[in-house]
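User: What would this chain look like folded?
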Amino acid sequence: MAAKGAEGSNEPVEVLFALHSSFNLTDFAGPLEVLTTALHDKSDESSKAFNCTIAGSEDKIMSEQGVAIASQITYKEAYDRLSDFDVLIVVGGNHEAVLKGKLEPLPMITAFSELQVNDSSRERTLLSVCTGSLFLAEQGILSGLSATTHPDYMTKFEIVCSTAAQRNLQERTDVVEDARYVVNNLRFELGDEDENPYIRRKSDNNDRRPSNARKGSISFQGSNTRRESIARRAAMRLGGLRVITSGGVCAGLDAALYLVSILVDDGAANEVARVMQHEWIKGTVVDGLDV
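Assistant: Here's the prediction, encoded as structure tokens.
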């Protein structure tokens, strides 16, 4: 198999789901369905675009809905293999217990972000779904970034973000209340910004025309091999770690579709949305930079 950084390589993107006790089932199952459905070639079922691994502290992790999900690796094994993963996904549910007990996936979030800071030669993404954003906020990941969460937990989210900023003497988080998802440290060819459908701000009227600027997987592959890309990524916040926070539950589907669009291509994301009979609602993208 060709190296992931090699142009033309269709090696699957490695995704790690870090689950905790009483996680929200749809926060997990929605993005999992999107990612496992995505193909590089819709006519070739073997061209899977993502390889998903589930980590948990126990053999079976019970969701708050009462459905148990079998973990594929332990957290210890996840830490040992952390550098193998391109994407870390954390979900919501039972956030009070996790925050109070400083439980997983909090340490995992920090370890993954530090991995990027210490080694910017690899393009990595951290994605939270629903109240999973509270975990990122608690660990100081969102300081100086823009982010969102479930609307019902916006006040709690703002408090956690503010407390973390004061504790760590860092910048505050720009909390976005009206977005399906928020993307920081965006990387792909922007082209004409006025025509690019992925640049979304609160002032936008959301009627931009589709752009041909997307480089999809070619951009992802090239970003791990071009020295200029690596140098520019290293200068970005968190070493260029792409940080995506999504709103409540079903907004995780939209964030996952966005992930497919940037790591595979638009066509693959639209095909997944068609198969799932889901209308993909775009989110907010900030700090766009072509590396």
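DSSP finds ten helices and twelve strands in the chain. If you want, I can go into more detail on any region.
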